[in-house]
Amino acid sequence: MADRKIGVLEKIGYGLGDGASNLIWMIFIYYQVNFYTDVYGLAASAAGTMLLVTRSWDIFVDVIIGMIADRTNTRWGKFRPFLLWMALPFGIVATLAFTTPPFDDHGKLISAYVTLTLLMLAYSAINVPYGALMGVISPDPQERTELSAYRFSFAQGAGFLVAMLAMPLVAALGQGNEQKGYMLTVALFSVLAIAMFIGTFATTRERVVPVKEQKTSTKQDLLDLMKNGHWMLLCTLGILQVFFVALRGSSMIYYFKYYMNDVVFAGPFGWSIHLGGAGGTGPFIVMGTLTSLAATFLIQYVTPYTGRKNAFIGCMVLGAISLVASFWVKPDQLLLLYGFHFLYSIFTGPTAALLWAMFADSADWSEWRTGRRATGLIFSASGMSNKLGWALGGALALALLSIYGYQANMAQTAHAQEGIRLLMAIVPAIGALVCGLGMLFYSLEKQMPKIEADLAARRSKKEA
Predict the structure, then answer these.
(1) What is the mean pLDDT of the chain?
(2) Nearest Cα to 137, choosing from 203, 75, 70?
(3) What's residue 63's pLDDT?
(4) What Pfam family does this protein match (any one) (predicted)?
(5) Between 148 and which of 4, 65, 337, 353 could a Cys-Cys bridge form, CB atoms 3.0 to 4.6 Å apart?
């Protein structure tokens, strides 16, 4: 267990990986639903079914990838090689997923199913090993919190780039053709993501390894997972956490385009920016992302005093309150909307970092209890929460839009606007509140000092 302390360069390198994923992930969170209905040309109901089907079945792929990674042994380690092997395929299929083919409606729907399925496969193959990597870079819970803070700070930073640049790039590269603009914009982000994944591969090390005598079957690994109550609770909370983020993220562009009044800020030399209306989504996301980024980075200095569990609960409850309050914002109350979004971003921004640091602890608990370590399986199965929460959030957003009578690229009825407002505030608030209160049942945090000491002693004995 030499080289216990992790340097800043390695933390930055690890963070680059989630920044790479989020360059594509956040385009999906913020713009994919609207892309399929208003640009690609799918009906809301058809797009919603597609999102649910393609994302839900893929959760089982995560488990398979995790078990493959646990059984991978190379000179680079178990998990780092996947970052090198899968970076290019991930970038290619991401671009294909935002390419509109010259087919009829039926052909475009089939193409959307195929390309989104391929993207989910590539995402699993690179992101599952990346998530598991944190569990083997360091065994120390506080260092994992710091790694997680860097990880999600870079993720938020990538979200900032997407919010700031995506729509301007679509307009500039497409030159009036949104279909072309989306394809070229995602291709550009994909090139950057490939380089960042390779950067993570080059700057990280795997330090925590299973004892040499460990040999387990797939059946035994799955049985261990099902008996890990701490993981099962965290996975459920992860579904809820991603669900409300995806739901609100998907609704933002509809909210600004069809509900909020346009407000134009005029700058020097003829420069101007739209803060409301159809062009207001980007600045709104940028402000929230910067706020979340700062809160995520600073949470590592809060948890030594509050603990991760209490910090998570407090953040979720306060975030839910700010969401509920924002429901009553009027179309001309842009400043008030920004104020509630600022509070929401401060409170909910660090929650993903806190949750994923706890997933690493659940892997340690399983090894401590069983004598067997399956970091890749733990993190891949944990990744199911992302996939399922993302699927449910996107599908429910489209389903509610359809129920409330949404019509693409048309003035919306008062009833449709109410549905959009519910998607933006009340429904995600319910998800955040239930997620926060669910953390009350988490009991592993106080056991971690003993677990860490026991595991360190076992490894030292085996290495002696």
Answers:
(1) 87
(2) 203
(3) 79
(4) MFS_2
(5) 353
Of the options 1.20.1250.20, 3.90.226.10, 3.40.640.10, 2.40.30.30, the CATH number for the domain spanning 8-208+218-463? 1.20.1250.20
Q: Give pLDDT, residue 312.
A: 96
Residue 418 pairs in a beta bridge with none
How far is Cα 64 from Cα 377, in angstroms, rounded to an integer? 8
Query: Please, is 99 exposed, middle or buried when counting C-beta atoms within 10 Å of its C-beta (0-12, 13-18, 19+)?
Result: middle
Cα angle for residues 112, 408, 31 (degrees, 5° grid): 55
**Residue 22 CA: distances (Å) to CA of 82, 197, 297:** 17, 11, 16
Residue 22 dihedral angles phi and psi, to the nearest 5°: -75, -20
Q: What is the pLDDT of residue 55?
A: 73
The confidence score (pLDDT) of residue 270 equals 54
Q: At what angle do helices 178-203 and 80-97 cross, to 10 degrees?
A: 180
Q: What is the pLDDT of residue 1?
A: 42
pLDDT of residue 417: 93
pLDDT score at 272: 56
SS3 assignment, position 71: coil
Task: Give the three-class secondary structure for 269.
Answer: helix
Distance (Å, rounded) from C-alpha 396 to C-alpha 249?
A: 12
Instruction: Kindly state the tokens that stand for 410.
Output: 């048309």
User: Is residue 377 within 8 Å of residue 63, measured between CB atoms?
Assistant: yes
Q: First vs last Cα of the chain: how many Å apart?
A: 12
Q: Which of 358, 293, 74, 96 is nearest to 201 (CA)?
A: 74
Positions in the chain whose pLDDT score sits under 50: 1-3, 213
272-274 vs 264-266, strand pairing mode: antiparallel
Per-residue b or e along 242-255, where b marks 16 or more CB atoms closer than 10 Å to that residue's CB: bbbbbbbbbbbbbb
Report how far Cα 329 is from the mean position of its chain's Cα atoms: 27
Q: Which residues are paired to 272 by β-bridges?
A: 266
Contacts with 396 (C-beta within 8 Å, 6 or more apart), sequence order: 48, 243, 247, 427
Q: Looking up tokens 């799955």, which residue turns up?
A: 222
Q: Are 275 and 264 in contact (CB under 8 A)?
A: yes
Q: How do the domains of the chain map onto residue ranges?
A: 8-208+218-463
Q: What is the DSSP string of 431-464?
A: HHHHHHHHGGG---GGGHHHHHHHHHHHHHHHH-
- pTM score of the predicted model: 0.73
